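Batch manifest line 191
LIGAND: coenzyme A
JOB: complex structure
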Amino acid sequence: MDIIGPQLDRTSECEAVLRTLPAWFGIENALLMYKEDTAKLPTFAIKQDDRVIGFLTLREHFPTAWEVHCMAVEAKSRGKHLGSQLLEHSEEWLRKRGVEFLQVKTVAATSKSTGYAETRKFYEARGFVPVEIFPELWDVWPASTILAARRQLSWPVGGGEVLLSVVDVADAVVGLLRGFAGERNEPCLKS
Ligand SMILES: CC(C)(COP(=O)(O)OP(=O)(O)OC[C@H]1O[C@@H](n2cnc3c(N)ncnc32)[C@H](O)[C@@H]1OP(=O)(O)O)[C@@H](O)C(=O)NCCC(=O)NCCS
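JOB STATUS: finished
ARTIFACT:
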């Protein structure tokens, strides 16, 4: 099992992964955008027998504030800690670049989607915290979006460590998001 990236040119294989997850990536235009973005944005992928079975695409908003833009592990390989490995690997890569905040947008608990309940469980178990619901962020699923931000990284200062509080991070990320309100934000939702 290898992790490759962050430059990736395996769009067809990433598309194949997305197509195994119709409950999350059921909107064709969004799926194709995520596919193409794997070649445009920093993307890490897990390979098994030279086949991509999961990937994570990152997006930079500011040098210190990045986002998990898309993440997927093929349906039959879910729950085997591949997603956790991808996230840890990506965080290490970000940490080396001095990134302080990592956010992810996903569907809020106000939705009845059981799939996205699993998604939230995944992120929350890995330290992400809900920050705010943005009802109009994705018009395909009103009142169902959430921003989760993570108290992501620590770094040595004078031999010690600085850890930001969740509140600090939440304020900062919400502020950032408000600045991006008009920017493209595609959901990975079922239609
Ligand atoms: C979210 C995702 C990338 C995580 O990758 P993964 O390899 O399945 O995750 P891991 O095996 O590292 O961790 C699994 C965790 O997910 C959560 N989970 C809940 N139900 C699950 C299920 N039916 N299958 C898999 N994971 C589940 C749990 O928190 C579990 O943690 P645990 O091991 O402590 O029980 C992957 O499951 C996936 O592609 N999901 C569908 C698409 C998606 O939600 N993408 C992200 C949002 S766009």
